[in-house]
Amino acid sequence: MSLEGVESRLLIDGELTEASGSRVYDNINPATEEVAGEAADASLEDADRAIAAARRAFDETGWSRDLDLRKKCLQQLHEALVANREVLRPQIIAEVGAPLGLTYAVQQDTCIDDMLWDIGVAVDFAWERDLPENEFFGIKSRRVVVHEPVGVVAAITPWNFPFMLNLAKIVPALMAGNTVVLKAAPDTPWSATFIGKLVAENTDLPAGALNILTAFHPAEVGDALTGDPRVDMVSFTGSTAVGKHIAKRGADNVKKVFLELGGKSAHIVLDDADFAAALPGAAIGVCTHAGQGCAIPTRLLLPRSRYDEGIEQMAENMRGMKYGDPTNVENLMGPLISAKQRDRVLAYIEKGKAEGARLVVGGGRPAHLEKGFFVEPTLFADVDPDSTIAQEEIFGPVLSVIPYDDEDDAVRIANHSRYGLSGAVSSGSLDRAMAVARRIRTGTLSVNGGMWFAADTPFGGYKESGTGREHGLEGFVEYLETKTIAYPA
After folding, report:
1. Domain containing 156: what range?
2. Which of 170, 172, 208, 242 is found 20 to 30 A from 354 (Cα to Cα)?
């Protein structure tokens, strides 16, 4: 697949621009380990310009008060993305390592389509509501509750589903009337800069309403965004460790912080489940995009009464997984994003073996693939619920199987985690599965293969998986402030 129309420049104050000093860095294709192209390497000076532009656009233009203009501009962006799907697709595959099939779903196409839902939410939203007449200290008042944009939003996104997450943040934030500075992950800059190109060339978005930065040293620019008092809100998706750092940075200015962080989700397969129906999904899930998804169930809980049967089926499922060249539509799994991430996953596999887990399938780099940051689909059995691979987020195609005694034991193990992002329950009885699902402390759950991910579904976690929700009405409201006004009755 040829790369055409790649945009490497930043978007600052309405203009596509090189980074200060014309700094650039290489964008590496994780499937080939070769340089796919380059991207602008933003400096602190660039970050300052972007923040200033966003602040000015919010404070000095009518953007925050003009819903019709916001609708028009976001619809223009949607139309431009639809027209350029096939230009963008090979770029996402090249920099993300995402399998071709995933770009027809959550890596590209469905999130473009979902923009219309996000636009519609803002148009139909009840921006004001009247409260009943009230008397306080003898004063009768009428009251109105008004929803307003937060202000300047710093949106910081990761590399695993970058294009989707870029849109998931900037579309509701802009439709709510905010101005935005988007900082993309250094591994996947084009998934952001391509949006900047279309905004500059195809929309009437006011200068400064959306600014896009890419940087090889993301912590430097990220700290500039999160600590700046001109930024009113930080919307972050990424690791729990970085999320904690951002929360501390935001605390200095008491700014609003939304965090969608890590996960170590559990799939409970109850003893009455149809293993032939439930277990292939467990293998597909952990191998989708090489396991680089925060909500993927990476712990599989099997009843001791059917444990050997389950391990045998899972081994067959994992061995049959197709992976390799992401441009081949038959491959479900591509490479990990970088050599660093590949080595991190391999280190966790060694840790699992050292702590006594039984390696059943995989466990290394595939011998038949000479290049690319690949790791074999890997299955561990007899995993201790307290062990490292059962407790820490690996972000690779590694599934840990844990036996349980009864239903209560399964729930206890599933909840025995500092995370609470997602999970799954499989059972022959829908009522039984639903009852167990209600006991799991996570933000989303799949029951008997149900798919919760959609534009209208609020997504986020309990505990160290984050604060707030993305997507859905709740995700839109994250970008709003609430004001109450009273006047004499």
Report:
1. 10-261
2. 242
